[in-house]
Structure formats: C-alpha cells, structure tokens
Amino acid sequence: MTAERVLTPDLCVVGAGSGGLSVAAGAVQMGTSVVLAEKGRMGGDCLNVGCVPSKALLAAGHAAADARRAAAFGVRASVSVDFGAAMAHVHDVIARIAPHDSEERFEALGCTVLRAPAAFTDARTLRIGDVTVRPRRVVLATGSRPTVPDLPGMAEAAPLTNETLFDLRARPDRLVILGGGPIGVEMASAFLGLGVPVTLATRGSILPKDDPDLRAVVRDSLRAAGLDLHEQAEAAAVEPGPTLVLADGRRLTGSHLLVAIGRTPTVAGLGLEAAGIEFDPQRGIAVDARLRTSNRRVFAIGDCAGPPYFTHRAGHDAGIVVRNALFRLPAKARHDLVPWVTFADPELAQVGLTEAAARDRHGDGIRVLAESFAGNDRAQAERRTEGRIKVVVDGKGRILGCGIAGPRAGELIQPWVLALGQGLKIGAVATMIAPYPTLGEIGKRAAGGFYTPRLFGAGTRRLVRLLARLG
C-alpha cells in the first residue's frame, strides 16, 4: 500500500488566479515553502475568461471604431470585420501571457503545484486531491463566478456569461445583454465596434456606482454607436429566441443572450465550516482589515472575500497578506483607495469618493472642480472631445475623489490615485508642469480651478492696483 502523501509547508495558497499567484510568487522567492492549489486553469478568471480576453476583444472593437472615425482626418478607410479573426486575436493574447502564470513557471520558482480541488478537513488541515496539507498559514484566493438570475426559462436558454462568451467563433446577428455594470457595458462597446447590433437591458442605470455626469458621457457615446439601451428595465423571464422578457411586457430578441449582472464569491466546497471560517454564500468570506478570517491562520483575498471585484484589488490584497503572514506586520488593506475603470469607448475611471458620496459624508463643504475635454487642445487635435473630469475636494483642498470619462481615462486617473493615496492636496496637481499638448493637462486645469475664485477675485485686483501705485 502506498503511504499517504503529507505536506507541511509554511504557506498553502488555494487558487491560482492573479491574487493567489502574486502571493505564491512573492512568498516562495522570499524563502518560504509554498503549496499552490488550483482545480481549474492556471491564471484563473483574469487570464482565461476575464480581464485579458475582454480587453483584447475591446482592442479589436476599438480598432474598428477608430477606422470608421478616420474620415474626420481626411483618411478614407473601408472597415471589414473578420469576427473569427478577432476572436483568434483574443486567444492569441491569452496564449502569450499564459506562460507567466503557468504551472511550469511556478514549479521552477520553487512552489509545489497541486492541480486538484482543496477543502479543509479541520482548522489546520486541507485535503487537496489525494494529498494532505498541514501548513502554518493558508491564503484563500478562489475568486468569483458570474451570477445568473433564476428567471423562468433562463436555464433552458443556456445564456452566455464571461466564462463562455470568448468561445464564440461566429459573429452574432444581435447580442442581447442583461446587465449594465462594467462587464455589460464593456462588452456592448466591444461588440458594437465589431459591427454587431447590441441591445442592453438593466434594472437601473448603467454603471450605477459611477457619477451621473460621467456615466452620461459613456451612455451618449454608446447610443451614438447604435446601442439599443433599456434602463430601469426589470427582467421577468427568458423565452426561446433567445428573447428577454421585461416586467413591462417588452420583448428583446437576439441571436445570443449574455448575462452580466454581477459576480458571486466562490466559497462552496472549501470546507470552511470545518475550519471555523465565517462566510456568506453571497457576500463571501468575512475578513478583518488585515484580511484575516475568523480562523487567524487563514487569510482570504480578492473576489472570494467580497467586493470590489477587481484584479488590482486582489494584487493589493496579496501584498497585505505577504506582510502579515510572512513578516507579522500589522498591514491593513485600503479598499477605499482602489480605483476602477470601465474600458468602454470612451473609458470611465474613478478613485475615491464621487460627488454624491462626498456630499453624503462631508456635507456642502466640498467643492467640485470640473473640466470638459473640449477645452483640451490635444483632445481637439484628435477629435475626441467627448468627456469630462470631476475632482472632489474639501474646503482646504484635500482631494476626496476624482472621476474621468473620456479617451484613455484609465491612464489619466493614475496621478489622482497617487495623490489620494499619499494625502496630497490639490495644489500638488495645480503646480505640476504638464507637457503640452497632452490629455493630462485637463487634470492640472481642473486642479487650478480650486484657486481661480481667490486668484481672480476682488481682493487680488485691489492688491495688484496697490502694488502698481507703489511703482
């Protein structure tokens, strides 16, 4: 009889998505023994069915959209989309990145990689396939899965989700999307760019967590691109077609239905009860500010610990856990500083508080500094003047949040992420020397607006007149 295999590493990481891989790579390179467990594909959702394929598809859609806009520059272009080739591009991008997340790379780094489901058998022990693992510490990084509503006819319709969407090879005749959050809006933008008619229905407004003024920029652009948008629309059922039936009786028929209403943390089957770990099936694993679960030997990071569901949040969590688990430092996660970007055409980015959230927290003492892309020379030169920036500050100029809707908003938000994280005041941005002509000047111009009333007010004019009289 073969002896049972028992491993006693310093650290066991469950889940080889972006967060788990970051912890495993960092820990093993610092001399820690690491077991990495993954029951599915290495790289997790982000690489295989999430961030990477969606942004690759968006790049294809945006390339086609840019070609259609070329006439404004005197460039005549005929746009013909090969949908199969666009999807081949998506999978080529995945294949190019996959080696970085591969089992071979992590074995070479020194990890023991177990490709099997993991579950706790008690507070300190896991069973991973046919291996028993008793680590000093455990990091759960099991991610999340798409939420599919239990509507009449939904199961029979077998709708697309982000897990199956990128398997398409033939161009849909019409894509119906249920859900107006970032995933739904991004895929609407991508497929519209590729010439696919798109209908989108959402129970509230699109991008409900974003500032209304900024989401309006995205909404107007999507409608101009041909989106058939239905907001404040409650889904009631799905009929063959597939046809999405709304509560008011409207029927939205397409060749394909994509469900993108949100994410649910992946916690089932982990044996969390046996380990004494508190969790909720819908909200995920309960953690404190140091990302420790109710079992202090176990940490949870990324989507499995609940929203916000972003890859870069998982990466931030990974750094916090390494400091806590390896160095025993009381590092705390700062999810209030996690930015987010919806990579539609144009993009929408946000960090910190929106105007509404800032008013709820700070009252009427805030100031909103806003600028339009139309006032930016680079935007005019590139004929991409749709968009605006909104910066929220308190009365003393402390930055509370920033939102940007417009081309390359995901890049433009980054100085504001730094400023907010470092506690900088608005003057740091206002006095920055920005190269001309760049889209980044719009941030400096908005920041300068904080000083405009004082700089050009009556008091300044009196002072200038007085100094002029003194010779």
TrEMBL record:
- Record domain FAD/NAD(P)-binding: where: 10-315
Q: Which cofactor does it need?
A: FAD
Q: Where does NAD(+) bind?
A: G179, G180, G181, P182, I183, G184, V185, E186, G262
Please indicate if the UniProt record lists Transferase as a keyword. Answer: no
Q: How is the cofactor bound?
A: Binds 1 FAD per subunit.
Concerning InterPro entries, the annotation shows: FAD/NAD-bd_sf, FAD/NAD-binding_dom, FAD/NAD-linked_Rdtase_dimer_sf, Pyr_nuc-diS_OxRdtase, Pyr_nucl-diS_OxRdtase_dimer, Pyr_OxRdtase_I_AS
**Which key words are in the record?**
Disulfide bond, FAD, Flavoprotein, NAD, NADP, Nucleotide-binding, Oxidoreductase, Pyruvate, Redox-active center
**GO MF, any single term:** oxidoreductase activity, acting on a sulfur group of donors, NAD(P) as acceptor
Q: Which residues cross the membrane?
A: none
> Which residues does the record give as FAD binding sites?
K55, T142, G143, S144, D303
The protein's matches in Gene3D superfamilies, at most eight in alphabetical order, are given as:
3.30.390.30, FAD/NAD(P)-binding domain
The UniProt record lists the keyword Oxidoreductase: yes
Q: List the disulfide bonds.
A: C46-C51
User: Family per UniProt?
Assistant: Belongs to the class-I pyridine nucleotide-disulfide oxidoreductase family.
Descriptive protein name: Pyruvate/2-oxoglutarate dehydrogenase complex, dihydrolipoamide dehydrogenase (E3) component
User: What species is given as this protein's source?
Assistant: Caenispirillum bisanense
